[in-house]
Amino acid sequence: MPSIQTPDQESIAQDLSEKSAIKPPAMYEVVLLNDDYTPMDFVEGILMRFFAKDVAQAEVITMQVHHQGRGICGLYPKDIAESKALQVESYSRQHHHPLQCIAEKSEQ
Ligand code: TYC
């Protein structure tokens, strides 16, 4: 077996190692959007129930969404982020609130 690779073999080996390299999963932010109707205490409850925030953290994020239009609830792998966003919207509709929650790919 020759130890020196031809240019072709080299580029194939490099291609394979790049493809099989173990990368951390892309992370997604779960984001709450502001609206004019959902009560503040309901949003705080969402943050505690679905994102394990304590009261103080929930108040800070709720006010951030209220004043800035959006706020990050947490960072998760894609399937978990999408599932949480769906659960939050479903729970909100069950309680007749229009709260919107989305999952967005993180740039970090
Ligand atoms: N803006 C809402 C109000 O004044 C409160 C609110 C906060 C709504 C955060 C949605 O994600 C939200 N009642």
How is this structure best summarized?
The chain has four helices and three strands; from the N terminus they run H-E-H-H-E-H-E. It has 108 residues and is α+β, with helices and mostly antiparallel strands. Strands 2-1-3 form a three-stranded antiparallel beta sheet.
Key traits:
3-stranded antiparallel beta sheet, 108 residues, alpha+beta, 4 helices, single chain, binds L-tyrosinamide, Ribosomal Protein L30, Chain: A, 3 strands
User: Might you state the CATH topology name?
Assistant: Ribosomal Protein L30, Chain: A
> Structural class, from helix and strand content?
alpha+beta
What is the CATH architecture descriptor?
A: 2-Layer Sandwich
Major pleated sheet: 3 strands, antiparallel
> How many domains make up the coordinates?
1
Q: What are the secondary-structure elements, in order, as H or E?
A: HEHHEHE
Our measurement of the CA-to-CA distance between the termini, rounded to an integer number of angstroms, reads 43 Å
Task: Give Rg in angstroms.
Answer: 21 Å
The total count of helices amounts to 4
Task: Give the overall form.
Answer: elongated
Please identify which CATH superfamily we are dealing with.
Answer: Ribosomal protein L7/L12, C-terminal domain/Adaptor protein ClpS
The low-pLDDT segments are none
Average predicted local confidence, pLDDT: 89
CATH class, anyone? Alpha Beta
Proportion of helical residues: 40-55%
- Measured by DSSP, the beta-strand proportion falls in 15-25%
For the secondary structure, the number of strands is: 3
Oligomer: single chain
Q: Any ligands, ions or cofactors bound here, and which? A: L-tyrosinamide
Strand numbers in spatial order across the main sheet: 2-1-3
